[in-house]
Task: structure prediction
Amino acid sequence: MNTSTLIAPPALVRRAEQQDTKAIQALDSAHYMHPFTDHAGLAERGARVITHADNIYVWDSEGQKILDAMSGLWCVNAGYGRKELADAAYQQLMTLPFYNSFFNTTNVPAVRLASKLAALAPQVGDRKFEHVFFSSSGSESNDTNVRMVRRYWDLLGQPQRKVIISRHNAYHGSTMAGASLGGMSGMHAQGDLPIPNITHIGQPHHWENAKPGESKADFGLRAARWLEEKILDIGAHKVAAFIAEPVQGAGGVIIPPASYWPEIQRIVDQYGILLISDEVICAFGRLGHWFAYEKFGYQPDLITFAKGVTSGYIPLGGVMVGNRVAEVLIEKGGEFNHGYTYSGHPVACAVALANLELMERERLPGRVKDDTGPYLAERFEELKHHPLVGDAETCGFVAGLVLVKNKATREMFDPDLAVGMVCRRHCFGNGLIMRAVGDRMIIAPPLVMTRAQIDEMVALIRRCLDATLDELRGQGLLA
Ligand code: PXG
Result:
């Protein structure tokens, strides 16, 4: 494997480090509104200033080196500091920094990337992916999905098929349609969401939603059949599509039982509704395949992607449009009145091409599937023995741990104690970035992570779990 090199010249890095953290924090709270942030709280604490990165590590303005087990935000699949991605951007910026794809025009990187993605998406059953629609994010791509799905049914003379079914605790983005498709109650509570004709069923979360003693297989079937119940409740003739993440990411790395996806496939086929696989997190090697539907063996009609397509180096997203939808849109549709200024942005597409070539050359999806993914699973299995850990699961290069008060009874902590946040604080203190979703601690490491680095990460996780345990014991919250 290539060893990566820092993109930023050392002089630039040093300059960033020498900047006064307090001054940056003051400017930050004076002017910069962050996503999903309580600004009053942030102003009190001051933001952590990340200055540079290399391979699987980031550094902050105080000089602390931190192992980034979240790949930025589930996206830096190729790791930080990959010079060839910077070179690809520079070359394209100097050649053609921008041109649009409206009005009968196109550009070479967008064409090459669309054909590359079509070649990487495997055919399952009779579903082929020969067309791609580009956007700049996962949220925009899901807005595209909503418009495409409705257009499809209109063109087929079934305009009453409007309802899109999603799941509670799903994450599909933060635009009006994205947040509505998502099942985050906190998001729905702000701004009158969801928009009409979007509805939600339960998530396939065995730990939280299974009945006592219910097997994973039985629960998986029962959870899938919530979709059938919802379709029958609404009337199949009114349902347009079902959207789901292969493995829920932001919801806390929720890995469905093996029985779930085959039953979902039976149901969408039986009622003729479209299946949207939101692979913004799960594609591009994250689960050990280029696309995640391949891992689970189902047949989507539309696939949302973003993040890992450029390893997060530059914004790019899109929708892989399966032949079922593409043929109708192309043959019957005429003009589809939808698109973005940056659809097929040449620089973003050039970086994506360089990223996919790099991932192919270094066999990153294959490594996760056959080597480092199974090794991560093995190491996570050991964490189950920790007194705080009720469950530990991995799927490719995503993983989650449940922190519990009592392992035997699976009793959880009082949510007001925010034990996940306590653990997260210890992670930062010990040079590790891990996400807390309630009391689930989750990771999605860069796919370049080696076995030795997995060992280093697991040792850090163990240290943070121990520190959390000590703090809880110190407060008399645990025996
Ligand atoms: N779909 C899925 C499955 C996602 O994970 C989006 C759509 C939206 O993508 P954009 O590019 O519009 O952000 C996402 C994004 C978290 C977190 O806290 C996760 C995401 C974004 C922000 C925070 O885990 N996923």
Summary: The chain has two domains: 48-78+364-474, 87-361. The first strand starts at residue 50 and ends at 54.
